[in-house]
Every structure is written in structure tokens, then in C-alpha cells.
Design brief:
This protein is α+β, with helices and mostly antiparallel strands. 45% of the residues lie in helices and 13% in strands. The protein contains twelve helices and nine strands.
């Protein structure tokens, strides 16, 4: 469950969607008319099966055996392609454009970076699944997103974002305990099926005062920390736990109890047993605050576009239940079972 971290300002403005995806597909250009080749519709914009397959191949998802995990991975890729289309629709709607000269300059900069690594630019394009057309298209989208974000990142907005996320930025540490329910290895179907209900029942007993958290951890947790009543010690927002765990912890006040949530290790319930306030100020983390604010702005743009633009999925292609939009991919229900899904 341990993690490592890493970031930039041009792809820095693409925190939720397209850096890996736009490298693989042509979002612009002729759309497929054959219904069997369409996997999703975003308003009048189509997502073609060949695009999804290209991304899956590029990112190694196509090599996974048919399983619920592969179906979830395919649904995640398709969701990101949808978000990329929604972004383009919204940027068109509000009139954010990239001039040809700006794209030319970005392309020259990219060529210089590739040459600086001793690589041939055409070979770089071929290895990454790009073409001259798709790389220009990707650079144009990144420029447009930069412009959209830069118009709204004001000193007041930065200050407000720091205050809103202070505990995650100022070095605050939390002491946490958890209860981990592990899925059965090699079981058929969704490996977390039934675990959420079990976790909710355990949580209910804790909330009602029928059992203490530490006692419930000793009785039910599959993690080694059960011997210490679930105590994992101190964590910061940046580690040592993985983000899907730490993000849940930092939503809680001292004494708070999370809802059941999933990580690659299983289903968890956690509690914060102590808080050590941080002392880091805004000036020390300003670039990080700007990145957080950029992420929020882009996500808000996608969410607004989702409300404006109808999205339809082909029934037999793995995709997330639209009713669960806004939840993390690990928590969302996967619908549709395509030939590559399970």
C-alpha cells in the first residue's frame, strides 16, 4: 500500500484525462459511421472502437486476461476518452482556441526535447502511436487547457485553494487505524462482491457503540495491523500510504470514521486517532496549489460538460454506470461485458 509521487505546467493542465490517451488516438477527423464501430457518443461526437483498442494496446490493457479487472480497466479508459471529448466540446463552447503559430511553437519545443534525448522525432512518434496530425491535435488541446486554467488562477483563487486544502499541503500528519477485508484469491466474479456489505455491517456496529474500532480490527481485519487494533501509525498526505487510502484519511477529523472504500488491497474502513498540525505556508507549496487548482478547474469543466452533453455507451462494451459519475474508478459499477471484458 506504499506509494511514490511525481509533475509539469503544460501536461500539468491535463490532470484528469488526456496525456496518455491523446498520444494514441485522433480525436479530430472523420468519424466512423458503422454502428458496430462506435463504443460511445458524446452529443454528436463519436468514440470509435479502434480508438479504445489502440489505447488499450498502448497501455497494456489489451494484454490482460478476460476478467472483472480487465473490464474495469477498459471502462476507465473509455471514461477518459469521454472526458477528453467533453473537454473539447466545452472549450469550443467557451471559445478557447489555439492559434496555428502557438501549436507550431509547441511542436518545435517538443522536437528539441526529443532531439535533446538523442532520439529521432519520427521514431518517437511511431513508438508512442502518434502521427504528425495527432501530435498537433494533442498539443493544441494542451494549449487550450493552459489558457482556460491561466485565465482563472488568480492570487485570490490560489489563496482560497490553499485554505481549502490546507491539511493536505501544510505537512499535517494523521495517526490512522484501519480494518481491511481482503477479496478471495481466484474467486469468480467481482472480487469485492459482498465485502462492502460486510464492511458496512462492521462499521454500523462501531457507530452504534456495540464494539470498539480496535476490537473490530482484531476480530475482522486481514491486515497485520490487526494485532495493534488496526493502528498503522502516522501518515502524511504524500505517504507512505497509497493515494486512494490517504485521500480518504485526510477527509476525516480526529475521531472520524470513513465509509467503506476500496483499494487494490481490498475494502477498508479507517479512523483517525490523532492529528499533528502542519506548519508549511503557502509560499512553500505555491506550485502544488496551482496544480491542485488546475485539476479542480478541469474537473469542474468536465462535470459541467457532462450535465450539458448527453453521453451514451454501446451496451456490450465495458463502461461505468453513468449514475456513479464523480466516484473514484475503484468504487464505480461496471456495466456491459464486451469481448475483451470478462
Amino acid at each position: 500500500m506504499r506509494s511514490s509521487a511525481g509533475g509539469s505546467a503544460r501536461s500539468r493542465m491535463l490532470p484528469v484525462v488526456v496525456t496518455a490517451l491523446a498520444a494514441c488516438v485522433a480525436a479530430a477527423g472523420p468519424q466512423a459511421a458503422d454502428p458496430s464501430e462506435i463504443v460511445a457518443r458524446c452529443g454528436d461526437k463519436l468514440i470509435r472502437r479502434m480508438e479504445l483498442e489502440a489505447v488499450a494496446q498502448r497501455l497494456g490493457v489489451a494484454d490482460l486476461p478476460a476478467s472483472p479487472q480487465r473490464a474495469r480497466a477498459e471502462a476507465t479508459l473509455l471514461e477518459q476518452l469521454v472526458d477528453e471529448r467533453i473537454l473539447r466540446i466545452e472549450l469550443d463552447r467557451i471559445g478557447v482556441i489555439a492559434a496555428e503559430a502557438e501549436v507550431d511553437a509547441a511542436l518545435r519545443k517538443l522536437r528539441a526535447q526529443v532531439a535533446g534525448r538523442g532520439a529521432d522525432f519520427e521514431e518517437f512518434l511511431a513508438r508512442s502511436g502518434r502521427t504528425p496530425s495527432t501530435i498537433r491535435d494533442q498539443l493544441a488541446l494542451e494549449i487550450r487547457l493552459d489558457k482556460f486554467v491561466e485565465q482563472q488562477i488568480t492570487p485570490d483563487a490560489i489563496g482560497a485553494a490553499f485554505e481549502q486544502n490546507r491539511r493536505e499541503l501544510d505537512g499535517t500528519r494523521l495517526r490512522v487505524s484501519h480494518i481491511l477485508l481482503r477479496p478471495q484469491v481466484g474467486g469468480a466474479g467481482d472480487p469485492t462482491a459482498g465485502l462492502f456489505e460486510q464492511a458496512a455491517a462492521i462499521r454500523g456496529r462501531i457507530v452504534r457503540g456495540e464494539t470498539a474500532f480496535a476490537e473490530a480490527a482484531r476480530m475482522h481485519s486481514a491486515g497485520p495491523s490487526r494485532r495493534q487494533g488496526g493502528d498503522l501509525g502516522w501518515i502524511s498526505r504524500d505517504g507512505p500510504m497509497m493515494d486512494s487510502f490517504s485521500s480518504q484519511a485526510f477527509r476525516l477529523a480526529k475521531g472520524g470514521l470513513s465509509e467503506p472504500f476500496v483499494t487494490p488491497f481490498g475494502v477498508h474502513i479507517l479512523t483517525v486517532t490523532d492529528v499533528e498540525p502542519g506548519r508549511i505556508g503557502l509560499d512553500a507549496v505555491r506550485p502544488r496549489v496551482q496544480k491542485i487548482l488546475a485539476t479542480q478547474l478541469v474537473r469542474s469543466l468536465v462535470a459541467a460538460g457532462r450535465r450539458r452533453t448527453p453521453v451514451e455507451f454501446t451496451a456490450d462494451v465495458p463502461h461505468f454506470d453513468p449514475a456513479t459519475f464523480g466516484q473514484s474508478p475503484d468504487e464505480r459499477r461496471v456495466l456491459g461485458v464486451g469481448s475483451g471484458g470478462s
